[in-house]
Amino acid sequence: MPSLNSATRDKLKAVSTATLCTALFKRGLRNQFIQDVHPVNTQRDPKAPNMVGEAFTLRYIPAREDLNPITVFQDRAHPQRKAVESCPPGAVFVIDSRKNARAASAGSILVTRLMKRGVAGIVTDGGFRDSPEIAQLPFPAYHQRPSAPTNLTLHQALDIDVPIGCGDVAVWPGDVVVGDGEGVVVVPARIADEIADEALEMTAFEDFVTERVQAGQSILGLYPATDERNREAFAAWRRANGR
Amino acid sequence: MPSLNSATRDKLKAVSTATLCTALFKRGLRNQFIQDVHPVNTQRDPKAPNMVGEAFTLRYIPAREDLNPITVFQDRAHPQRKAVESCPPGAVFVIDSRKNARAASAGSILVTRLMKRGVAGIVTDGGFRDSPEIAQLPFPAYHQRPSAPTNLTLHQALDIDVPIGCGDVAVWPGDVVVGDGEGVVVVPARIADEIADEALEMTAFEDFVTERVQAGQSILGLYPATDERNREAFAAWRRANGR
Amino acid sequence: MPSLNSATRDKLKAVSTATLCTALFKRGLRNQFIQDVHPVNTQRDPKAPNMVGEAFTLRYIPAREDLNPITVFQDRAHPQRKAVESCPPGAVFVIDSRKNARAASAGSILVTRLMKRGVAGIVTDGGFRDSPEIAQLPFPAYHQRPSAPTNLTLHQALDIDVPIGCGDVAVWPGDVVVGDGEGVVVVPARIADEIADEALEMTAFEDFVTERVQAGQSILGLYPATDERNREAFAAWRRANGR
Amino acid sequence: MPSLNSATRDKLKAVSTATLCTALFKRGLRNQFIQDVHPVNTQRDPKAPNMVGEAFTLRYIPAREDLNPITVFQDRAHPQRKAVESCPPGAVFVIDSRKNARAASAGSILVTRLMKRGVAGIVTDGGFRDSPEIAQLPFPAYHQRPSAPTNLTLHQALDIDVPIGCGDVAVWPGDVVVGDGEGVVVVPARIADEIADEALEMTAFEDFVTERVQAGQSILGLYPATDERNREAFAAWRRANGR
Amino acid sequence: MPSLNSATRDKLKAVSTATLCTALFKRGLRNQFIQDVHPVNTQRDPKAPNMVGEAFTLRYIPAREDLNPITVFQDRAHPQRKAVESCPPGAVFVIDSRKNARAASAGSILVTRLMKRGVAGIVTDGGFRDSPEIAQLPFPAYHQRPSAPTNLTLHQALDIDVPIGCGDVAVWPGDVVVGDGEGVVVVPARIADEIADEALEMTAFEDFVTERVQAGQSILGLYPATDERNREAFAAWRRANGR
Amino acid sequence: MPSLNSATRDKLKAVSTATLCTALFKRGLRNQFIQDVHPVNTQRDPKAPNMVGEAFTLRYIPAREDLNPITVFQDRAHPQRKAVESCPPGAVFVIDSRKNARAASAGSILVTRLMKRGVAGIVTDGGFRDSPEIAQLPFPAYHQRPSAPTNLTLHQALDIDVPIGCGDVAVWPGDVVVGDGEGVVVVPARIADEIADEALEMTAFEDFVTERVQAGQSILGLYPATDERNREAFAAWRRANGR
Predict the structure, then answer these.
(1) Nearest CA in chain D to B31
(2) Does the CB of E47 have a partner CB in chain C at under 8 Å?
(3) Smallest Cα distance from E74 to chain F, Å
(4) How confident is the model at residue C3 (pLDDT cuts 50, 70, 90)?
(5) D interface mutation test: which of E44, E113, E128 has the most D CBs within 10 A?
(6) Number of helical (H) and strand (E) elements in chain C, helices listed first
(7) B85 vs C185: CB contact, 8 Å cut-off?
(8) B30 pLDDT exceeds 70?
């Protein structure tokens, strides 16, 4: 797995998932935004930095009743518990719940443990239980919707750190996962650095455009900057703003 | 209908729907959490006590146009209006809207009336109209999503206090309905007392575990407490905290 | 297109979408509430006036990859960009996204431009990107859910100001679009004045009823006012409150 | 319940559900076709007469595990079994399965018993088990899709012959239920006779139009017959064909 | 619109929609198969030639009740009726029904008229009424599922021969529409000739491979023919079979 | 993996998936029927023996565009192709397609190869391409619906013979998969023998009951046989019929 360097991590903290999706789209990657997954904390501060980290995955399959009594958690090697204790600090914990939020993917105790272990955040395409508590934690968590039933009701934890699907997106271990107030995007590990660079450039331009539009300028010729004067104005703006 | 005693009611106000779901799961009841139903007030105080009460039900079927002109409400015996005036104080009013939120299940005037009558809360697997007003009321209300069209558009109120389905859960009159910030769970009347007791015990343990995890302890051997030292620590914690 | 007069506009700013749906229902129009579309700003002030304006529409069809490279936006005549610059001030910009929120309908720069141009609001039955920024703008915006991927991923902008479907509702250019904290309703242009009048009357009555219900009165005979004494009390209330 | 007379029954055997839907639409009834319900026998003879009978209903709610062990069927009063033995000959047995086909509504033995008792047909908005056997029976059966799990898995039989919803349609006991190769329509009891008459007239006209179109005539002025000559031709056709 | 030449038409009659999808995929077109649309005739002869023709489109929006009484069909210029009479012989009539099969897109009389006029086939992403009759016609028709209610219930016919969406696919007038027993694919007009050529070549190879696999050969090295001996065997097979 | 003995295989060929579901239900296994999966051959002979075999699985995740060009199949180790060549004769090939039928899970050439290799059948919770050809093969194949696009469009083949989900059911390698005209059920390997025995007994009883019901007997006391005389009659029937 190519390691996520700290410069790239910092850049990815400061760009939006929307901008990242466009940078990926330009490279033919049209399907990297995790569908129908939202911050658990619906009052999230819009100025908060993004969740950024390499994907560490957990795969669920449907639960069969005889294999999933409440006693399975007495096994320290149970994959859900083992995954929580082995996810590397700085990584994002991503769960393939087959888009099924009718039972929980995890609850506040496990999420708190991940937070304390220095994990960067957690994502499921199912739902979390104890979601009001999770929403209060200073820790990024993303799911489809709250779900109180224990995961054993419908989910059997199986594999740790294998390629999975999450919200219709392929997640390969080590891919860089970025979350903001809008949702979560998966950046393939191989291109994370160049995508971060490009997205940072795009963000500068978008901030410039936003300023101009707020000042009353038309988007025609400005966004994109097909008009030469707007390209000059942007160059001046960059100098003036040190970006 | 076994009557809900006040001790059980108080216990159920202080435990989470997630904990209740696990207690029910242990008894083979895997399907008691009402699916895809959420607090109308999305800024609900996470410290607020739960909604707790015995289920009082209203059943809707699809509306046929000729039977549902606006004038039907002139009939004082119309089941929706009659149900609102006859729901016992302390009960939870639960509507079977067939999971259809394309028209409203009820609006703010009826919900206000229920509140004034001392009803404990209201739940529908459809949607409420006047939802911004309902969100402001000091009264628990749960639905799928806001829906402005009058209920006559798609719903015919039919039966009062019969067994119904709500969000894929069986709701029998007198079942104990509990709602928190996560959603709503239905506890069969017959086992409400024992479930309340067990959930209170579980909550003490979960609070203990949360403290330890916040303090940096691993979940292995702690959650569940397969390690003897953790069981001893929990016993000490209970004594120290009077729980 | 019948022009929306300012008296009607003011009335429509002060009534709820729920009340409008009932007034439309009385005229046999049962399907004017845009389904599953919500304010982008989930912390919207419930006292804020409604979004009101005549519909100005944009139609999307599915995007074909070869017709939708990122370079299409260099064309000043691209329908999405052209629509943003030609939507009349005071109108509501309504997008037919075929209920598909897997890619964005538009982002914050275009929405900001609409705001600066004096447009009254924007509605899509898909999703917006940059939704956290849009939520902060003093501008009404309604969508299904946030969606970061660029619209080119799935949407081809095609037609400007033609009749469309939005959230299963027919939207004809010039129809009056009203949005509150609950959602968005479409009032046919031809009957906008009479609907506004009737809804204002209904709102007075509902406010009266709400007061009485808050004061402890039963809804029977009051809502609707089949009891003569309630009709008299309402008349007195109107005089006392100047409504 | 107004009794279905044999003349009306015979007429309804000979007209299509499509024609009936149009006759109902003319009276403002837009929602009488049971959605997403199909003949179990996918090789049904298109010339077979329609299923026609008065609705006899069975209502299911979600099954709770402790109330639905396999042993419940030892009770002769179990509503599913009792309903099968009490449905009147000539009636159509209609089940409200909440559109849930993940477990069966009934199986071939019960369906065979209904057939032998002279019942006119069976409809569920869920699925049947033993569907290959049911498809072979000379008995009309309609469902959403095959479903092998026993009904106890998800369905609790509750009420017999009450108003229900089936495939989003209101079904009142005694309504006239008509099924052809396309699906099932519910005709309110009160207007069954006049709808049957009108549909028979419409069918004669449609047969005439089909003949003309097969002979190469344009539909303009013919369907509907706004052209006087086509009305004359139809009158002549009726005389010639004795209809 | 580039005209579909008869050589290309003949080639497209003899290749499968699956093969065409692969040829389109190689050119970056991943989304040309109309989703969830099936032959009305479920007993279609698998040896029947494909439906092939240029797209002629009809666009529906949601119906508003006051604009869609049954009397609208008395207008000869009603877009649905006008479209049926103006669709060119040899074209495929494609309807954008917004994937809504709860009311019909058209019925047997209009479909028969299209057949008599020499149209090549009809496709909707909604449903047809009179589907048992349509299934008996010697005319290709594709839909989602049968639907008896008149189109006026939910669909307002609006535009003729404009770009539309159908089953999540962009359909531009003049695109070449091909249907077999599996479903319907849309080939952009500009590349129809080259796609037809390539698909014919691919079909020869697939037929060769099928013969070899039926004779017991492994697919490794054969499909695709990475093994030189298989390429030679294919060359020999082509000579022997004149393909 | 416990090996499936031939006696059990033979028994399972002769009982229905409905009967198996009931036997599993009695053991607390409520979720073993693969949801929304149907025989590709819709004209399947209802007398044909069941598909029976041990599960051999293939896991798909969402396809990322850069990892899934058409050239990947040139790799003999591509998991889809390798799986087809390594599935044991007598096994059932089960694919986890995440219930996504928008692109194919496999096509006729691979299915033919499996057939020639002696595999017992194939199941996907997505769709097959070349489905008309597959329907003609003397080989059991089950899917959700036909789907022409190549699997590379949406599916990345990843793992061979690992536990998967298929149609919301857990499938562990070696589980016994049984398919009839209704659909597919998964019997856990450990209990396959006893389930087969019990289902065979149940089938004898159901055949007896069906005969009696066809002869006009009521189901009360017969199904289940709570009436002693019916138990005696069944015993006599068994002797007479050698079962």
Answers:
(1) D64
(2) no
(3) 40
(4) confident
(5) E113
(6) 7, 12
(7) no
(8) yes
Token code pair at residue A201: 């450039």
The three-state secondary structure class of C62 is strand
Per-residue pLDDT reduced to its tens digit, F194-226: 999 999 999 999 999 999 999 999 999 999 999
Tell me the Cα Rg of chain F: 20
Report F:163-222 residues touching D (Cβ under 8 A). 180-183, 185, 206, 209-210, 213-214, 216, 218-221
Find, among E92, E68, E66, the residue nearest to E78 by Cα.
E68
Instruction: Name the residue among F110, F141, F109, F108 with its Cα closest to residue F125.
Output: F141
Selecting from C42, C112, C146 the residue whose C-beta is nearest the C-beta of A183 gives C146
The Cα of C223 is separated from the nearest Cα of chain E by a number of Å equal to 28
Q: Which two tokens stand for residue E140?
A: 């290709």
Within 8 A by CB and 6+ apart from E166, the residues are: E34, E37, E57, E94, E95, E96, E97, E123, E124, E125, E186
Question: Which of E55, E8, E26, E32 minimizes the C-alpha distance to E193?
Answer: E8
Helix E192-214 to helix E17-26 angle, to the nearest 10 degrees? 120
Shortest Cα distance, chain F CAs vs residue E28, angstroms: 10
Under an 8 A CB cutoff, do B148 and C25 touch? no
D209 chain-E contacts, CB cut-off 8 A: 109
Residues for chain C: how many in total? Answer: 243
- Which residues of chain D neighbour F205 with C-beta distances below 8 Å? none
Question: Does residue F78 have a pLDDT over 60?
Answer: yes
Cβ–Cβ under 8 Å, residues D121 and D141: yes
CA distance B109 to B94: 17
Distance (Å, whole) CA D225 – CA D222: 4
pLDDT score recorded for residue A167: 98
Spatial distance between the Cα atoms of C185 and C169, rounded to a whole number of angstroms? 9
How is residue A126 written in tokens?
């199912």
Neighbours of F238 (CB within 10 A): 14
pLDDT of residue E1 exceeding 50, the answer is: no
Beta-carbon contacts of residue C239 (< 8 Å; ≥ 6 apart): none
Q: Which two tokens mark D197? A: 């008459």
Taking the CA atoms of chain B, what radius of gyration do you get in angstroms?
Answer: 20
- Asked if F188 and A66 come within 8 Å (Cβ–Cβ), the reply is yes
Check if the beta carbon of residue C109 is closer than 8 Å to that of residue C20: no
Residue in chain C closest to A15 (alpha carbons) equals C130
DSSP element (H, E) containing A205:
helix A192-214
Q: Do D214 and E42 touch (CB under 8 A)?
A: no
Which residues in chain F have their CB less than 8 angstroms from residue E35's CB?
102
Nearest to C62 among E66, E100, E169 (CB): E169
CA distance F113 to F85: 8
Using CA atoms, how far apart are residues D13 and F68, in angstroms rounded to an integer?
55
Kindly determine whether residue B61 and residue D165, on different chains, have CB atoms separated by under 8 Å: yes
Do E and D make contact via 3 or more CB pairs under 8 A? The reply is yes
Could you say which DSSP state residue E88 is in? P
The answer to whether B30 contacts chain A (CB < 8 Å) is yes
Q: State how far Cα B1 lies from the chain centre.
A: 18
Tokens of C70: 């990122």
Q: Which of B22, B206, B231 to mutate to test the interface with A (most CBs of A within 10 A)?
A: B22
B42 φ, ψ (degrees, to nearest 5) = -75, -5
**Beta-ladder partners of D121:** D92
- Pick F61's closest partner by Cβ from A27, A64, A170: A170
Q: Give the Cα separation of B123 and B180 in Å (integer).
A: 12
Q: What is the identity of the amino acid at E177?
A: V
For B62-84, what is each residue's pLDDT tens digit? Answer: 999 999 999 999 999 999 999 99
Q: Are C99 and C125 in contact (CB under 8 A)?
A: yes
pLDDT bucket at B3, cuts 50 / 70 / 90 = confident
